[in-house]
Amino acid sequence: MDSSRRLAGVARPPTFSRAGLVTGAVRIVPLLPTVAIYGLAFGISAASRLTFTETVLFSAFVCAGAAQMASLQAWADPVPLAAVTLTTLGMNARYLLLGAALRPWIGALAPAPVYGSLFFLGDSNWALALKERERGLEDAAFLLGSGIVTWATWVATTAIGHAFGAVLRDPARYGLDFVLPAFFASMLAAFVKRAADLVPLLVGAGVAIAFERFAPGPWSLLAGAVAGSATALVRRDAR
Amino acid sequence: MRADVLVAIALMAAASYACRAGGYLMMRFVTPTPRTEAWLRAIPVALVGAILGPVAANGGPAEWAGLAAAIVVMRAAGNEFISAFAAIVVVAGWRALAG
Question: What is the ipTM of this complex?
Fold first, then answer.
């Protein structure tokens, strides 16, 4: 079925219309509260490290919740550039798979709509768009429409979160220094779907803790990510 | 605005877009093997472990209770917001009581 679809896509590009754009923008609305909560959480946490303008630029151009939160954990003065860039690559590596899965659908479109839409690619609008396509959606502008609304929500709520976080005198008193760990802990349920996922998680945690003893700083994060994810390669090997 | 922050944002924006467009682009030349897919999916999981591991190791009872609350409530309620909120309340409450 997949290959016949792919052939059909090559022969005839999918539609990419204003109507599809609007449909995407409307259908994504029920998923926006989650984006908004993450946006507020990131904004509050960013307030102690970044200015308002920096936070807004950060969200507008990077637009990746988990990556932005993870890099904030490694943030310092001056910013460890290599560490935060690699953290972003690691956290967003999953987008490589999401983008690859879109090729059978949007592969026959012109480069401009494709590479424009991909800027707004996120977990929620990707999942929604592919689900709608299973039900017969043809219009590929759905992805862009839903992505732009998600992006706008993300940027706006991080700005609101920053404004809120900036007026608090003692964030630790309200547990707000714990916002990022709290969200990452709740994210575990989404990331860890099978018992096998606990292996990269626990190895990542153990290596990061051990590494931090010898070399405090942002690199423990990456050491844990490299060691933990490598377990997935080994396990595949064994099969 | 600090220059190093702007450079960091530019680098991270480029890295994000490379991931978003890269998978689509590479599908023209290669398709990911199951092993590559398993590895790419494991990276964020390992990163979250690497973030939370030191938080737990360097924290005390308040932080441990907060992490446990987030995980338990997420399992029970299935909602990220309720789970994270519960964790923050537990941490703040524990610190207030402990002193």
Answer: 0.88
